[in-house]
């Protein structure tokens, strides 16, 4: 499974890309593969303040609906508006065009997240 | 792989939607070895089964099969099954994996010197070959032997072993269910995959099996059927025979439901594209009033919107009427529809 080294990871299979004061969030390659073909995405409203670990989105494949948790506390500042019309982007480009939302984190340095190698280790256990 | 009734089953091989579409457009091959295969033999077999099964096995001719139920005294469904008759004293039952031991035990209680039941879990192989190309593919490996007509079963010899082929399935497509001993199973599986490859055959997992059966409006025991849901409530009264003389468990309850109606009835629901799909357990509303609950729901790969079976308080809203189901605290529109979401070809 692909786990890029420039990202931080949550045990619940979200990734976080820090870019200056903001961050982009998506689901990992492992998560998209486990879900299989994504057919529906429900995204949060921009401006919503969320806690770390709070359910902020739902990704649904044919077989199941999966909750997506915010890896950090902060405010949702943008969502990927392309996804509702092309939810399969999450399968095709989980770390790229298939991103879910952008967040303004409360803390500049997020805590409790994993490096790519530590996250990859949770998958093989 | 996921655990399923004591088995590890693949949810998908190459991708749920690809497998689903292959079965609709070409063919799919499903490993159904988890399903219980029970043989009933002896000169009292027919009369014994008549007192257990809700659909009358006496209606079957040699080589014929039909859908039936094993009901409890309350008229609820312990299991739904396919019953095949080879002869008056030799029947073959295919039951759900989750009820295999329970049903075997229940049947064995009825055993006498003149009727015996056999078939432990894990003692045989089953596979289903389904889709418009199924007959062409199976004919290739049987080298021209003529296949049984729909809802029939026949014995064949393949790879030196005796096997059973039934023209039944759980996808809404034409197709076959093939039953063999354990050593022969993988040989048939491999031969079918090879013969089917040029025709678009894909091996299919539990995921597409579920989306295919739901598009065809076929029930899943444990969701659309249960010990708390009668076959009449599930809308499957045509598979319950109340005209024959012999009693079977729950008969009087089912007779009452037939004459004075059941408190609940299963209906179909169709959602809309771009809306969250219906799922098992979601409540169904008409206006502000909850009228029932979704028993099975899925985003239909063929139709591109959600479809569901829902158990609704009677009288149910008519076909075409608007209702709503609740997803994560929000109400989503749906239309009442026929339970067969796809027309059979």
Quick summary of this structure?
The complex is a heterodimer of chains A (125) and B (345). Chain A is α+β, with helices and mostly antiparallel strands and 125 residues long.
Shape, per Cα inertia axes of chain A: globular
Oligomer: heterodimer
Name the CATH architecture of chain A.
Beta Barrel
Structural class of chain B: alpha+beta
Helix content of chain A: 10-25%
Which properties best describe this structure?
heterodimer; A: 125 residues; alpha+beta; OB fold (Dihydrolipoamide Acetyltransferase, E2P); six-stranded antiparallel sheet; three-stranded antiparallel sheet; 3 helices; B: 345 residues; Gyrase A, domain 2; 2 domains; six-stranded antiparallel barrel; 19 strands
Could you explain how this protein is built, in words?
The complex is a heterodimer of chains A (125) and B (345). Chain A is of the alpha+beta class and 125 residues long. Chain A has helices at residues 29-35, 89-92, 116-124; strands at 8-9, 14-19, 22-27, 38-42, 49-50, 55-61, 65-69, 74-79, 101-105. Chain A is globular, with a radius of gyration of 13 Å. Chain A starts with 7 loop residues before the first strand and ends with a helix. The model of chain A has no long low-confidence stretch (mean pLDDT 95). Chain B has 345 residues and is α+β, with helices and mostly antiparallel strands. Chain B has 2 domains: 2-213, 2-Layer Sandwich (Gyrase A, domain 2), CATH 3.30.1360.120; 263-339, Elongation Factor Tu (Ef-tu), domain 3 (Beta Barrel), CATH 2.40.30.110. Chain B is 19% helix and 34% strand. Chain B is built from 7 helices and 19 strands. Chain B has a 6-stranded mixed sheet. In chain B, helix 1 (16-25) packs across helix 6 and helix 4 packs across helix 5. The longest helix of chain B has 12 residues, at 185-196. Chain B is globular and about 60 Å long. Chains A and B meet through strand 4 and strand 6 of A and helix 1 and helix 6 of B.
């Amino acid at each position: 499974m692909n786990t890029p080294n420039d990202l931080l990871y949550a045990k619940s299979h979200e990734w976080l890309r820090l870019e200056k004061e903001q961050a982009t969030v998506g689901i990992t390659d492992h998560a998209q593969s486990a879900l299989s073909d994504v057919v529906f995405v429900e995204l949060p409203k921009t401006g919503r303040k969320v806690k770390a670990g709070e359910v902020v989105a739902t990704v649904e494949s044919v077989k199941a609906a999966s909750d997506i948790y915010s890896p950090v506390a902060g405010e949702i500042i943008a969502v990927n508006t392309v996804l509702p019309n092309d939810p399969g982007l999450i399968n095709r480009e989980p770390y790229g065009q298939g991103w879910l939302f952008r967040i303004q984190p409360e803390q500049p340095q997020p805590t409790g997240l994993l490096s790519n190698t530590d996250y990859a280790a949770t998958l093989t256990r | 792989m996921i655990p399923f009734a004591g088995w590890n089953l693949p949810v998908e091989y190459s991708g749920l939607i690809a497998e689903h579409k292959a079965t609709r457009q070409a063919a799919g091959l499903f490993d159904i070895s988890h399903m219980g295969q029970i043989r009933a033999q002896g000169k009292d077999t027919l009369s014994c089964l008549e007192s257990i099964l809700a659909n009358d096995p006496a209606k079957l001719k040699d080589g014929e099969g039909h859908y039936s139920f094993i009901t409890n005294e309350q008229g609820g469904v312990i299991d739904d099954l396919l019953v095949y008759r080879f002869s008056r004293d030799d029947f073959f039952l295919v039951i759900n994996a989750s009820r295999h031991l329970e049903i075997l035990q229940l049947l064995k209680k009825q055993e006498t010197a003149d009727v015996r039941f056999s078939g432990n879990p894990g003692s045989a192989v089953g596979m289903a070959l389904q889709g418009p190309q199924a007959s062409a593919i199976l004919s290739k490996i049987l080298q021209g032997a003529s296949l049984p007509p729909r809802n029939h079963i026949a014995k064949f010899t393949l790879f030196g072993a005796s096997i059973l082929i039934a023209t039944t399935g759980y996808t809404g497509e034409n197709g076959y269910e093939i039953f063999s001993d354990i050593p022969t199973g993988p040989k048939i599986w491999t031969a079918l995959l090879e013969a089917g490859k040029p025709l678009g055959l894909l091996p299919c997992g539990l995921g597409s099996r579920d989306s295919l059966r739901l598009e065809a409006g076929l029930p899943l025991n444990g969701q659309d059927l249960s010990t708390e849901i009668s076959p009449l409530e599930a809308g499957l009264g045509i598979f319950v025979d109340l005209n024959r003389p012999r009693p079977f468990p729950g008969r009087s309850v089912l007779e009452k439901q037939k004459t004075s109606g059941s408190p609940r009835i299963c209906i179909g629901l169709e959602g809309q594209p771009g809306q969250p799909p219906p799922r098992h357990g979601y409540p169904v509303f008409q206006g502000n009033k909850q009228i029932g609950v979704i028993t099975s729901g899925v985003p239909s790969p063929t139709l591109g919107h959600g479809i569901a079976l829902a158990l609704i308080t009677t009288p149910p809203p008519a076909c075409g009427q608007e209702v709503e189901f609740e997803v994560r605290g929000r109400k989503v529109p749906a239309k009442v529809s026929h339970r067969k979401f796809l027309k059979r070809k």
